[in-house]
Amino acid sequence: MKVIFAGTPEFAATALKAIIDAGFEVPLVLTQPDRPAGRGMQLQASAVKQLALTHQIPVAQPVSLRLDGKYPEVAQEAHELLRNTPHDIMVVAAYGLILPLSCLSIPRLGCINIHGSLLPRWRGAAPIHRAIEAGDTETGITIMQMEEGLDTGPMLMRRAISIGAHDTTAALHDQLATLGGEMVVETLQQLAIAPLTATTQPGEGVCYAAKISKEEAAIDFSISAQVIDRKIRAFNPFPAAHANIDGTTIKFWRAEVANGDSKLSSGSIIEASGQQGILISCDNGKSVLRVLELQKPGGKRLPAQDFLQGFPLKAGQVFHS
């Protein structure tokens, strides 16, 4: 079976590597154009492109696939490339471009997608972040037959994993990427023998995982410590939950809900000894957040005790969003 692969970040590269390692022929890879990255803002190839070039797989990087969009000539060229590249199926994982029906209908066996949630929950761009933020106790991977709707296609395979109390998006991402690679290989192996039964997604339980914005990572201490803890884990590693104190923005990387309450207003530091972390009053004192790992501008991520040696804090100071 010949597989065209479309994907961009590390999540997708893990799946592509699994497909290559399983012995499937990959005649073409589609990925997003190189983007500026790092302090020097030099153009950087995506994780998928880097892997494809390592395996000497041809790479295409169209800015659009929509024939009726802003770049119809580029899209037309990409369509012709797909039609002229012998293949049986296209696998899509975190590609970042919309595949119109004109693309979805080109492969003989259609297009399948590796999605990082238990559909129909968390359709959209940020399913891992939103699952943690919402307090879900499980998530997983869905292998889905693609159609024009956003993550609405029938499901070929669905497998769950638990979300631990301390799981971050970074940790969960790696687990799901590995699982996605295993499942797409299993799916392709079965499709090479016979069609799989596709299950229509339920109409109930649909959630939309909107793209994460930097603005929503600002911590609002007027909400409960439990919700803030989830946000800190959800926004690790990007865009990093943060708060401002005396004009300095501090990133919060790790925290937990502490026992007890406080008489201090929201955002007020209760204790900053370091040994017990930095205790902050939340929800007008109804709950307390224990911050365990922080980062100041230009500094490293540090445990609270080490952080306080270079950035002293004291009880009564107030963090603001």
UniProtKB/TrEMBL annotation:
Residue span, Formyl transferase N-terminal domain: 1-187
Residues where (6S)-5,6,7,8-tetrahydrofolate binds: S117, L118, L119, P120
Transmembrane region(s): none
The keyword Protein biosynthesis belongs to this UniProt entry's keyword annotation: yes
Coiled coil recorded as keyword: no
Ranges of residues in domain Formyl transferase C-terminal: 211-311
Domain of life assignment: Bacteria
Keywords: Protein biosynthesis, Transferase
Catalytic activity: L-methionyl-tRNA(fMet) + (6R)-10-formyltetrahydrofolate = N-formyl-L-methionyl-tRNA(fMet) + (6S)-5,6,7,8-tetrahydrofolate + H(+)
SUPFAM superfamilies, per database record: FMT C-terminal domain-like, Formyltransferase
InterPro entries: Fmt, Formyl_trans_C, Formyl_trans_C_sf, Formyl_transf_N, Formyl_transf_N_sf, Formyl_transferase-like_C_sf, GART_AS, Met-tRNA-FMT_C
GO molecular function, one term: methionyl-tRNA formyltransferase activity
First-tier enzyme category under EC: transferase
EC number: 2.1.2.9
Job description of the protein: Attaches a formyl group to the free amino group of methionyl-tRNA(fMet). The formyl group appears to play a dual role in the initiator identity of N-formylmethionyl-tRNA by promoting its recognition by IF2 and preventing the misappropriation of this tRNA by the elongation apparatus.
Protein name: Methionyl-tRNA formyltransferase
Organism: Undibacterium amnicola
